[in-house]
């Protein structure tokens, strides 16, 4: 690949600061080297954090994002910065999970996307959030997210 395909990107190949809020983060699309091939890309973030909008206490999740790229991929550094921007952001589990997915869709227009948010318990209740854009395309291999359901001490 030549350097000119990355012109206009905000994060790739340069020093970057963690955005203070998700609205300040920008996902960088990069050209998919195999746009005619149906395949799945998986991003796993086992240490995602945000803030409870009611109590101000930290919330923790294990996110699994699967997507079938079309013309563009999500550049991973910009994705990491987006996820880090939620660290001081007050929002409910459902909002954070779906917001991450919708930002990826807006940035790269994938053929298909699924997000699984496995939130660690607060107040004794784990909250798991799942969303996908529709049925997976025919022929797309979609593995299990690989995260065991919460079982407490049992």
From TrEMBL:
Residues that bind substrate: 74-76, 93-94
Source superkingdom: Bacteria
NCBIfam families: QueF-II
GO molecular function, one term: preQ1 synthase activity
Enzymatic reactions: 7-aminomethyl-7-carbaguanine + 2 NADP(+) = 7-cyano-7-carbaguanine + 2 NADPH + 3 H(+)
Pfam families in the cross-refs: QueF (PF14489)
Region annotation Disordered: where it falls in the sequence: 1-30
Record keywords: Cytoplasm, NADP, Oxidoreductase, Queuosine biosynthesis
Functional summary from the UniProt entry: Catalyzes the NADPH-dependent reduction of 7-cyano-7-deazaguanine (preQ0) to 7-aminomethyl-7-deazaguanine (preQ1).
Chain's gene name: queF
UniProt-recorded name of the protein: NADPH-dependent 7-cyano-7-deazaguanine reductase
Uppermost EC category: oxidoreductase
One GO-annotated biological process of the protein: tRNA queuosine(34) biosynthetic process
Cellular component, GO annotation: cytoplasm
InterPro entries on file: GTP-CH-I_C/QueF (IPR043133), NADPH_dep_7-cyano-7-deazaG_red (IPR050084), QueF (IPR029500), QueF_type1 (IPR016856)
């Amino acid at each position: 690949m030549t350097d000119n395909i990355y012109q206009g990107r905000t994060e790739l190949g340069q020093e970057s600061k963690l955005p203070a809020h998700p609205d300040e983060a920008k996902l960088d699309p990069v050209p998919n080297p195999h746009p005619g091939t149906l395949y799945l890309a998986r991003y796993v973030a086992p240490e995602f954090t945000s803030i409870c909008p009611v109590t101000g206490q930290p919330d923790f999740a294990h996110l699994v994002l699967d997507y079938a790229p079309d013309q563009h991929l999500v550049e991973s550094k910009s994705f990491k910065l987006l996820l880090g921007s939620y660290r001081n952001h007050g929002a409910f589990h459902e909002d954070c999970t779906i917001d991450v997915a919708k930002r990826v869709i807006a940035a790269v227009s994938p053929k298909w996307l699924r997000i699984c948010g496995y939130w660690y318990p607060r107040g004794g209740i784990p909250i798991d959030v799942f969303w996908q854009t529709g049925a997976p395309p025919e022929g797309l291999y979609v593995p299990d997210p690989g995260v065991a359901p919460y079982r407490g001490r049992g």
